Amino acid sequence: MAQSVAPGDIITAPNTKIVFNAPYDDKHTYHIKVTNNSARRIGWAFKTTNMKRLGVDPAAGVLDPKENALIAVSCDAFAYGQEGGRNQLELVIS
C-alpha cells in the first residue's frame, strides 16, 4: 500500500502558483524546481486538465533524498476568448 507524503517532504519553487499572462500568441515557458526534502525516495508526476495547451517536461520522475529536478512548464499559443474553461496543472506525489 502506498504511503502518503507529508506536506513538508516536497518543496516547489515557486511554492504557490505560476501564471501565464498575455499575450497568448506566443508559447510561454516557466520553470519549477521540485525538491525532495525527505529522507526517502519519492515519485512525482504533473497532470493537467488541458493537455493540448499545457506541457510539462519531464512530466514525471523519481527523486532521491535531498535531490531536486528542474521542470519546464509551457503554455502553447491560443486565441484568447475563443477557447473556454480554466487550465490547471497539478503535482501528484507518491
List keywords for this structure.
single chain; 94 residues; mainly beta; Immunoglobulin-like; four-stranded antiparallel beta sheet; three-stranded antiparallel beta sheet; 7 strands; 0% helix; elongated
How would you describe this protein?
The protein has 94 residues and is mainly β. It has one domain (7-16, 26-79, 88-93): Immunoglobulin-like. It has no helices and 7 strands. Strands 1-2-6-4 form a 4-stranded antiparallel β-sheet, with no helix packed on it. Strands 5-3-7 form a 3-stranded antiparallel β-sheet, with no helix packed on it. The protein is elongated and about 45 Å long. The termini are close together.
What would you say the CATH architecture is?
Answer: Sandwich
Structural class given helices, strands, pairing?
mainly beta
Number of strands: 7
Q: What is the CATH superfamily label? A: Immunoglobulins
Total DSSP helices = 0
Whole-number average pLDDT? 79
Query: Can you list the strand order of the major beta sheet?
Result: 1-2-6-4
Q: How does the major sheet shape up?
A: 4 strands, antiparallel
From the N-terminal CA to the C-terminal CA, the straight-line distance is 11 Å
